[in-house]
Amino acid sequence: MAATIIDGKAFAATVREKVAGHVARLEADHGITPGLAVVLVGEDPASQVYVRSKGKMTREVGMKSVEHKLPATVEQQALLELIDRLNNDPEIHGILVQLPLPDHLDEQRVVNSVSPAKDVDGFHISNVGLLGTGQKSMVPCTPLGCLMMLREQHGDLSGMNAVVIGRSNIVGKPMAQLLLGDSCTVTIAHSRTRDLPDVVRRADIVVAAVGRPEMVPGDWIKEGATVIDVGINRIEVGEKTKLVGDVDFESASQRAGAITPVPGGVGPMTIACLLANTVTACCRANGLDEPE
Ligand code: NDP
Q1: Which atom of ligand 1 is nearest to the CA of 215?
Q2: Is there a single domain that holds both residue 119 and residue 154?
Q3: CATH code, domain with 58
Q4: Is 153 noted as a catalytic residue in this protein?
Q5: How many Å is the maximal CA-CA distance in the chain?
Q6: Which candidate among 114, 144, 220, 230 keeps its CA 20 to 30 Å from the CA of 253?
Q7: What percent of the chain has pLDDT above 70?
Q8: 247 lines ligand 1 (CB under 6 A)
Q9: Would residue 173 show up in a list of annotated catalytic residues for this protein?
Q10: pTM of the predicted model as reported, rounded to 2 decimal places
């Protein structure tokens, strides 16, 4: 039977609507406008596209959007000084430094220079530690979006076997922590995993975050499993290019119970969660109840 297609685009629109409602109430009841600052270093075309659409959606939900574009050659000290100014700016509640950064910059140092309270990406070491110990933190947007779709699909995830393919700090590891927090039995697979097909075949939930086009074929998927495809890969088809995920959608959707498409699955949810995190950061900064 063909899988249910999880419509991340539609779900993200409902999340953004809720965010817009919170923003309107913050404005009406407290005269506060949540503000998000995005810092882009260099001219990577994909990053420019992401930053543009983040800015547009931030404004659409009624928040203040600030973009700082720095040349690829910027010195680390200048970048750190900008982040310091944003950390101390009361009108800015969320700061996002678009990754990857050019090689001459110390990415970890830059990420850790963002105030943890404004770290809406959830990459600061304090937030990583809080998430890992089950405490209130800023949760990375992509895994948070994946978790929301899984909860929407299943309600309670407890006891389910989940396999996360990929162990990056920004997707794989926090995804695994979130699934563990929801009481899944979690396996993290990576490039050294032995017999990956067998590992994946045991999973009720598969989250693929690898960055290899259509690497997971349908016959690895357990009948009825839920598949969340984080991958965004541009491939050439004849003279054109198209986006595909890390999962072979065609064959996997014949076996899965539910599956996210690429595009239109995880991607839109990531931006919606970024906006939701900014509202949360704003509420915390002002000692107000935060949205659920
Ligand atoms: P990374 O390159 O940081 O990590 C990839 C992971 O995949 C690594 O842990 C690597 O293992 C593992 N891997 C590589 N090859 C294999 C293999 N053959 N078998 C099993 N595991 C393998 O990528 P990211 O986590 O940053 O991103 C993953 C994908 O998600 C990319 O396509 C990216 O574009 C996309 N993405 C999408 C987002 C969205 O909003 N939808 C947001 C962020 C990312 P090892 O550690 O052993 O090298």
Answers
A1: 18
A2: no
A3: 3.40.50.10860
A4: no
A5: 57
A6: 144
A7: 100
A8: no
A9: no
A10: 0.97
User: Is 98 in the same domain as 79?
Assistant: yes
pLDDT at 228: 99
Does 267 show up as a binding residue in the annotation?
Answer: no
Residue with the nearest Cα to atom 41 of ligand 1?
267
Tens-place pLDDT, residues 7-34: 999 999 999 999 999 999 999 999 999 9
Strands, E assignment, 169-266: 185-189, 205-208, 226-229, 233-237, 240-244, 258-259
pLDDT at 57 over 80: yes
Q: What is the DSSP letter of 223?
A: T
Residue 10 lies in a domain: no
Does the Cβ of 58 fall within 6 Å of ligand 1?
no
The C-alpha atoms of residue 114 and residue 12 are separated, in whole angstroms, by 26
Q: Band the pLDDT of 48: cuts 50, 70, 90.
A: very high
Which atom of ligand 1 is closest in space to residue 271's alpha carbon?
40
Do 122 and 177 belong to one domain? no
Listed in order, strand segments (DSSP E) in 140-219 are: 161-165, 185-189, 205-208
Residues 119 and 198 in one domain: no
Position 209 in a domain: yes
Q: How many C-beta atoms lie closer than 10 Å to residue 45's C-beta? A: 7
Q: How many structural domains does the chain have?
A: 2
- Is 54 annotated as catalytic? yes
Q: 212 CB less than 6 Å from ligand 1? A: yes
- State residue 211's pLDDT score: 97
Any domain includes 8: no
